[in-house]
Amino acid sequence: MRNVVLSIRRQLPLVLLGAGIAVSTLPNLAFSAGGEGGSNSIPTCTKGKVYDTRSKKCVSKNSSAVPDKDRTEYAYALTQAGRYEEALEVLDTLKNPNTKEAWNYRGYATRKLGRTDEGISYYKKSVAIDPKYAMVREYLGEAYVIKGQIDLAKKQLMVIKSICGTTCEEYEDLHEAIENPSNI
């Protein structure tokens, strides 16, 4: 799914231009995949705002009208856009931060900020909530690869295999990370 979204993101300006829509007139939005295996694409907003799926608008990140599910998916969209600090700020606004997705995305953002051990601690909280959550297993495995703990990464790969087989994206991505650690 992530590869499809990236492909769409690259092709969108060309499609819009082909349709006679001037790309420069579009709002500053970047589309990213949201949620586990989600097909939803949500835009990212300017700093200090979150995307509200009900109003289909960017609103203040402190707005009480935006539910935790939207905030969590928006934080994931921010991580995919490389906006890790902002993702953590959004996760800090959750009413219930104790979900598998919230802990996973918090782990991902902190790992990407170079705080791998902290990221691992958040991944483990996600695993404790749902041991069969393949995405967190992938990211935890990648964290172990970064730390040079390939044996632990391979254990996560085997868990992913038991969850969704060898053709799911999480298995393929972690396998690639183990084979080519410089690509993480």
Automatic annotation (TrEMBL):
SUPFAM superfamilies: TPR-like
Keyword Endoplasmic reticulum included in the entry's annotation: no
Residues making up the signal peptide according to the UniProt record: 1-32
Matches recorded under Gene3D superfamilies: Tetratricopeptide repeat domain
TPR repeat copies, ranges: 100-133
Keywords from the UniProt entry: Repeat, Signal, TPR repeat
Domain of life, source organism: Bacteria
Protein name: Uncharacterized protein
Organism this protein belongs to: Phyllobacterium brassicacearum
